[in-house]
Backbone:
């Protein structure tokens, strides 16, 4: 091999690395759009049976069937949202009765007691707060920050909702056209394997989303039992809200606990209960009950449901979600199981003799 050939090889390798790096950077920059497309595809998979029913049984035209299906889904979602209106009105009324000065005083007393307790065990709370960047929580500075973050998230959600709705409409409307075009561009020697993979992925993802719905229903019922035991107002609505947060694995339950604690405390304030002796203990008991629900879900119901629906081992599911969360954050945790399941199907179809893939896909 001549020096010229070696130089050309090095230049070619560098060019390939740069091209791959630019491609990954481009995908990273448009990751939000990709997420919108993934969500739209999931919604399309869920609504496609309804669209087919409207076309076959009720003889709807394709466009009318798609619009009707999306409208029905929108009305169902709106109905769920309207369930929370009484809760928001009640909490708003409670907050209007809130004595901020007294609450802040109780809050500081609670922090002082915690500080004295930790100091008695030689724990430097000041250094701990500074190192963990929790100084804003020692005052009420976190409240305006939370409100600003909430409205910013609401704005992003509105834009995302409109984008997903638009993409979903055209995926459903042009699904047959997309399928034919997709089928025509496939190489003849791989066409059968690819189409079989797509069919199997659709089947497993449908089972996964049904399993997710079952998991959320179980969590909602268990939360409802906890809230009813401790006399929480609007127990059904709060249980539903907290169950929805569980869509995000591991992080969602923490958010649900914070939200439930805040709602319980504001309800107690609105009822005129003593904050230190009644409201705060009730909130603590509720959080303990929710923690027990999470123990049940994380160790029994969730692993069993997801392992059965995706034909994967519970430890396998846990590790995939954990790695996806470390690499891609909350979004990665949400899409980890569907994405991993799709990869397993593709691997089994195209690399059936690979020992690693064979071990991972033996139950598929």
Residues:
């Amino acid at each position: 091999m001549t020096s010229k050939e070696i130089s050309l090889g090095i230049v070619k390798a560098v060019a390939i690395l740069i091209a791959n790096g630019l491609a990954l950077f481009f995908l990273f920059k448009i990751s939000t759009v990709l997420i919108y497309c993934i969500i739209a595809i999931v919604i399309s998979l869920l609504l496609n049976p309804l669209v087919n029913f409207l076309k076959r049984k009720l003889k709807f035209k394709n466009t009318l069937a798609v619009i009707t299906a999306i409208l029905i889904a929108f009305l169902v979602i709106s109905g769920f949202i309207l369930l929370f209106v009484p809760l928001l009105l009640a909490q708003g009324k409670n907050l209007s009765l809130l004595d901020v000065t007294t609450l802040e005083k109780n809050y500081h007393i609670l922090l002082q007691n915690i500080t004295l307790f930790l100091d008695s065990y030689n724990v430097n709370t000041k250094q701990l707060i500074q190192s963990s960047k929790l100084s804003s929580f020692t005052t009420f500075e976190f409240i305006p920050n939370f409100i600003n973050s909430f409205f910013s998230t609401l704005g992003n959600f509105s834009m995302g909702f409109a984008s997903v709705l638009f993409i979903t409409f055209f995926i459903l409307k042009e699904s047959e056209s997309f399928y034919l075009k997709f089928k025509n561009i496939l190489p003849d020697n791989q066409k059968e394997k690819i189409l079989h993979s797509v069919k199997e992925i659709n089947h497993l993802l449908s089972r996964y989303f049904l399993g997710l719905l079952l998991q959320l229903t179980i969590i909602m019922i268990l939360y409802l039992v906890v809230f009813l035991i401790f006399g929480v107002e609007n127990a059904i609505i709060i249980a539903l809200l907290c169950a929805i947060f569980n869509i995000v694995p591991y992080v969602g339950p923490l958010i649900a606990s914070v939200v439930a604690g805040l709602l319980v405390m504001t309800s107690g304030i609105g009822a005129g209960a003593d904050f230190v002796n009644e409201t705060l203990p009730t909130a603590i008991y509720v959080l303990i009950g929710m923690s027990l629900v999470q123990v049940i879900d994380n160790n029994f119901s969730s692993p069993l449901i997801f392992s059965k629906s995706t034909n994967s081992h519970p430890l396998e599911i846990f590790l995939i979600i954990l790695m996806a969360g470390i690499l891609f954050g909350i979004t990665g945790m949400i899409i980890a199981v569907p994405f991993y399941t799709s990869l397993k199907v593709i691997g089994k179809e195209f690399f059936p003799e690979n020992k690693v893939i064979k071990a991972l896909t033996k139950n598929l």
Notes: The radius of gyration is 26 Å. The first helix runs from residue 3 to 29.
